[in-house]
Design a protein that fits this description.
By secondary structure, the protein is of the alpha+beta class. The protein is built from 4 helices and 6 strands, in the order H-H-E-H-H-E-E-E-E-E. The chain has helices at about 5-15, 20-30, 40-50, 55-70; strands spanning about 35-40, 75-80, 80-85, 95, 100-105, 130-135. A hairpin with a 2-residue loop joins strand 2 and strand 3 (about 80-85). The radius of gyration is 18 Å and the shape is globular.
Length: about 140
């Protein structure tokens, strides 16, 4: 299947019309070999630069959230006002570099999944994903 057809399918299956801007969003998100982490603002800036025209933040926001709701993207909350999205939707862990605001995948070799001793009554655990926040150790730089 050609990439354009694949992108059109993703958009339509997410309830969106495949416009030129939305197809560009698909290209940036899904036409890559490696996992892509992004914020909506960063994605909008990147797409505006590539299209050489301004793209509505609402278009990017609505497209990203439609993809998330369909399962094409995963949302990772860093804190109450900072959310990242990930093109790798499998259950996995992350480092968050607080110096650079970069979200980085880490493998199971880095993190041993914590043992959950007690669950919330009436709930089942869907996944366990660890977010490790890191920053420069200023004490070791002397």
């Amino acid at each position: 299947m050609s990439k354009n057809l694949e992108f059109t399918y993703k958009l339509r299956s997410s309830g969106l019309r495949p416009t030129r801007q939305r197809l560009k969003i698909c290209e940036v998100l899904f036409n890559r070999d490696k996992t892509f982490h992004f914020t909506i603002n960063d994605l909008a800036k990147d797409i505006s630069k590539q299209l050489n025209e301004k793209i509505s933040l609402a278009t990017v926001y609505n497209t990203v959230h439609a993809f998330k709701n369909k399962g094409y993207l995963k949302e990772i909350s860093i804190n109450s006002d900072k959310n990242y999205f990930d093109t790798n939707t499998t259950s996995h862990h992350h480092f968050f570099d607080q110096d650079t605001n970069e979200l980085i995948d880490c493998t199971d070799e880095v993190v041993e999944t914590p043992k959950i001793k007690k669950n919330i009554l009436g709930k089942k655990i869907n996944s366990v994903e660890v977010l490790i926040k890191v920053a420069t150790d200023n004490q070791n730089q002397k």
